[in-house]
Amino acid sequence: MKKTKTFPNNFFWGGATAANQCEGGWKEGGKGPSVSDHYTAGSRQVPRKFTREIDPNQSYPSHEAIDMYHHYKEDIVLFAEMGFKMYRLSIAWSRIFPRGDESAPNAEGIEFYRDIFLECKKYKIEPLVTIQHFDMPYHLCEKYNGFADRRVVDYYLNYCRTIFTEYKGLVRYWLTFNEINALSHSFGETLGGGILPKEDADMGNPFANSKTESPEVASRRFTALHHEFLASAKAVKLAHEIDENNRVGCMIAGTCVYPYTCNPDDMLASQQRMNMGNWFCSDVQVRGAYPHYAKRYFQEHNIQVTKEPGDDEILKAGCVDFYSFSYYSSACASADPEMKKTAGNMMGDAVSNPYLKASDWGWMIDPKGLRYFLNEVYARYEVPIMVVENGLGAADTLEPDGSIHDDYRIDYLRWHVEQMAEAIEDGVDLIGYTPWGCIDLVSASTGEMMKRYGFIYVDKDDEGNGTLERIRKDSFYWYQELISSNGESV
Ligand code: BGP
């Protein structure tokens, strides 16, 4: 067991959730439907489906979830009991603007989040707010096709202005878009970008359709992403204007991609994947300009990004203050077409790593990849970094005596914390860690409740049975001790 005194005293230990996966109350308090409300529940075998008509019998994922809408006070008490210094949550855009394009916000939605932030303040927990986490107001998708339409940038800005103003003094840390690079792979086209599929469609393999889509569809996707870049840059500028204490970050789905062999072709394949998969969005958001390699990628894929004069200046004027990312897994790239047939889980034709084990959901577990990735990010950008998602999705067993022995989760987290400590020793400016789903919630990729990440168990199953009681797992006490020793007890 490694002892470390590495973590700085003001390190932000905490946890992360997203409104669409935990709040429920999808029609309460004046909330409008969001794009995530149109996704059905799925499973490991059955993909989630986007449907234009919402099934009234559906309870998951976002309709009821863990009903944090009514339980947030007791949940924040539990976060405080673990010693959280930071709580990452998202604001459901459609609670603030139910349709997205109206001029006046929904007062009840504003008060709901104000109360959450006041609760956090009571326990000295710093909120880290994701402004959009897979839940654009559905009206913006239906009427404008989401971020494919440039007007949505203004609606996003209007929403930002409202929350920056209302929560001035209560919230200092913001993330503009959750996993913005999901849209560069097409996974995020609907959930992140709000672009509607022509008909009801499976969520399917997150990265599969980037291979088969036409140049027109890819161009629309990258133009929507360009609009998100503009929205993000303008939001950064606005946040600084409204409160000079505001700090705004990008949020990237971080996946290390190793070359499968030392064959130079594999090396180049991994570099290309790292470039377009990981770095493309943060190069724009941190450095304020499109990177050099994008030009060739666009040319080779016949992608036309629709830009307007002045956009380059907007991007330059809205560079983020810090870099944040989710980290679960790594992958390998191979230039060999035969190897690609053994495709891994998360990245389309990525190849599995024979040195690593996978989770029950097939995600490769690679703690050292986190140290590697942290070093790569810091070398590239030299800005403060937060790991804002990390964790093990696993099915837990509630024992007859009410305990949950999730030693597998403790191991997973411990290995990652050890590697974060190594990265800090390497010189990386890591300032926070908010593991994903600190309280059990609904899975984004499968829509299941049984894929649990939490330190806190929620009594609810995939059939909708359960009391919603919150129960401390063994990992709750492990994390509590870790925080109180500032990482030394790992
Ligand atoms: C990220 C999302 C989260 C979260 C997490 C775990 O991609 O930002 O919303 O859900 O992945 O994934 P899953 O819920 O599919 O296990």
Commentary on this structure:
The protein is 38% helix and 13% strand. The chain is an alpha/beta fold and 490 residues long. It has one domain (12-484): TIM Barrel (Alpha-Beta Barrel). The strands form 4 sheets. Strands 1-3-4-5-7-8-11-12 form an 8-stranded parallel β-barrel, surrounded by 5 helices. A two-stranded antiparallel ribbon has the order 2-6. The longest helix has 28 residues, at 215-242. Residues 205-209 have low confidence and may be disordered. Bound molecules: 6-O-phosphono-beta-D-galactopyranose (BGP). 6-O-phosphono-beta-D-galactopyranose is lined by residues 18, 21, 178-179, 253, 326, 389, 393, 436, 443-446, 451. Belongs to the glycosyl hydrolase 1 family. One of its GO terms (molecular function) is 6-phospho-beta-glucosidase activity.
Features of this protein?
490 residues, alpha/beta, TIM Barrel, eight-stranded parallel β-barrel, two-stranded antiparallel sheet, 38% helix, 13% strand, globular, binds 6-O-phosphono-beta-D-galactopyranose
